[in-house]
Structure formats: structure tokens, C-alpha cells
Write a structure and sequence with these properties.
This protein is mainly alpha-helical. Helix content is 81%, strand content 0%. The longest helix is centred in the C-terminal third of the chain and has 43 residues, at 209-251.
């Protein structure tokens, strides 16, 4: 009886060590995959605050929560889908990434176009805050969740490509950990940013001068922070989208764009940071050009589709 008991303990110890090793593999894989997908995460965190601009403060956090919940649902569906596809049709991943990269490039190019074209019927420097209806909020949340869907697909596909484990279970667990970490990181940051001005006003009411100074600085800085995030979001869309397009065009046989960028970066004798900036800049330029072409094609299609019929005499 005692021998059987100690044999059972030994089996439990072996299982515990195997479970610990699996957890280590999941954590290590999640860390590496998260690092590789960091560019898309920066994009997501920079883009998301725009969806709560114009809301009254009491509705900001509820809307962020609705978007967060939609993002978690997106990632759950995506993880199931890509795990199935990785088993039955792994060849489709480059094409999915090309579609996602095209969307990011188009969104980034569209933002750049809005920057360089004059805005009419809008007073400069004035941001209106109005009481949105429930329908308005639903539309904002739907738009945010759609954008998150594309970015989440990119994050999950990039993460899957950088998971070295061959075990199906560890790959699935790693993707789940990455999805949860990314969602908490992005929307937790968004929630903190949109409430930072409230922290500033709270500090201003304190008797200590240093607290008042910090509070005043926070309140004055937040509009500039959000403007900066808008710029960073657009640039990240172009950079990430362009890089995804370059890499996956090469994967499907169109190697010339990626080869040109690689040859330019390889010809520059400079520190690693400089070459990274050059590679990112060239990726952004390629993303802008690709997005501009997509915008032009969509504009032509829209004009043909809604062209008024010519009246006949």
C-alpha cells in the first residue's frame, strides 16, 4: 500500500513538473509573440481614444468597456478560426495578412488626406462635447470594434507566426494569453488616458502647491496628448500596414518591393536604431502609397456607382 502511495506521489510530481514546463513555454511564447506584435498594439492603443472623443465624461468609461468586451469577443473568434485554419489551410495566412495590411494602409492614408485637405464648417481648436444618444454610442462602438477586429487579426496572426512550440495545446494557450494581455494593455491604457484630466482636476483642488502644479500640467497636456496619439496612430497604421504588405507580398511571390526596401536598408552603414527607423519609414511610405491607390480605386468605384443619369432630350 505504501509503495503504491509513493508511486502516486511520484506521478503527481512528474505531472506537476510537466505542467510547470508547459506554463513556462506559454509565458515565454506569449512574451516573444507580444513583442513581435508590439507595432500593431501601439497602433491599437493610439487609434482607440478617438472613439470616445466628443462624449460626456460619464459615458467615456462605459463606452470603453463596451469596446473592450467587443475586442475580447473578436479575439476569441479569431483564435478559434486561426487554430482551425493552421491545421487545414495554413497557406491562407499571407493572404489574410495582405487584406489586413491593405485595410491599415487605407485607414492611415485616409487620415493623412484629411490632414492635408482644408476642413470646412469646423472652427479650429474647438472640440465640441455633446450628449450622444444611445444610437450614436452603438455606432461608435460598432466602428471601434470593426477596427479592433482587423487589428486583432493582425496581432493574433503575427503572434501565431512567432510561436515556436509545436504542441497544439501550448500554441492555443499562448494565443489566449497574448489576446488577454493585449486587450488589457490597450484598453486599460485608453481608460487611464481619458480619465487623466479628472485626476488633474482632483489634484488642482488639493492645498499643496506641487499637487496643484501637477494637476494644472495634466489638464493642459491632455489635449496635446490626444492630438499626438492621433498622429502616432496614423503613422503606426502606415508603418505596420506597409511592413505587413511588404513581407507578405514576398510570401506570395511578389518579392520586388521587399527586396528594394531590404537593399536600401542593407546599404546604409549605421547603428541599429537608424536602420530600424529607415526600415520603418520606408514601410510607412509604401503603406501610404498603397493606401492612396486603394483610396483612388474606391473613389472611382463610388463615382461610377452613384453617378447621376444624364437626362435625354
Amino acid at each position: 500500500m505504501s509503495a503504491s502511495f509513493f508511486a502516486l506521489l511520484d506521478d503527481i510530481a512528474v505531472l506537476a513538473r510537466a505542467a510547470a514546463a508547459s506554463i513556462d513555454d506559454v509565458v515565454a511564447g506569449a512574451a516573444k509573440a507580444s513583442a513581435k506584435a508590439a507595432g500593431v498594439v501601439i497602433d491599437d492603443a493610439a487609434v482607440s481614444p478617438q472613439y470616445v472623443q466628443g462624449l460626456t465624461p460619464k459615458r467615456e468609461l462605459p463606452v470603453v468597456w463596451k469596446i473592450t468586451r467587443g475586442s475580447l469577443i473578436n479575439k476569441a473568434i479569431i483564435i478559434v478560426g486561426i487554430m482551425v485554419l493552421s491545421a487545414v489551410a495554413p497557406w491562407i495566412f499571407p493572404w489574410l495578412l495582405l487584406a489586413g495590411g491593405t485595410y491599415l494602409a487605407y485607414e492611415g492614408a485616409e487620415k493623412v488626406w484629411h490632414w492635408i485637405t482644408p476642413k470646412r464648417h469646423e472652427a479650429p481648436g474647438v472640440e465640441q462635447v455633446v450628449e450622444r444618444t444611445s444610437t450614436d454610442e452603438k455606432q461608435m462602438v460598432s466602428s471601434a470594434v470593426r477596427t479592433d477586429l482587423v487589428l486583432s487579426i493582425e496581432i493574433m496572426l503575427i503572434s501565431l507566426a512567432n510561436i515556436e512550440a509545436t504542441s497544439w495545446g501550448i500554441r492555443l494557450a499562448t494565443l489566449i494569453v497574448v489576446g488577454l494581455l493585449m486587450t488589457v494593455a490597450v484598453y486599460g491604457t485608453v481608460a487611464l488616458l481619458i480619465r487623466m484630466d479628472d485626476v488633474g482636476f482632483w489634484l488642482i483642488k488639493k492645498p499643496a502647491r506641487w499637487a496643484q502644479g501637477i494637476g494644472t500640467g495634466l489638464v493642459r497636456a491632455m489635449p496635446w496628448v490626444f492630438r499626438g496619439l492621433t498622429v502616432v496612430g496614423a503613422l503606426a497604421m502606415l508603418w505596420v500596414g506597409g511592413h505587413i504588405l511588404l513581407v507578405n507580398l514576398a510570401e506570395v511571390g511578389v518579392t520586388a518591393p521587399y527586396g528594394l526596401v531590404s537593399s536600401i536598408v542593407g546599404a546604409v552603414r549605421a547603428p541599429g536604431v537608424v536602420t530600424w527607423l529607415l526600415d520603418s519609414g520606408l514601410s510607412a511610405v509604401f503603406g501610404l502609397a498603397w493606401g492612396a491607390v486603394v483610396m483612388a480605386v474606391l473613389a472611382v468605384i463610388a463615382r461610377l456607382r452613384y453617378r447621376k443619369p444624364v437626362a435625354r432630350a
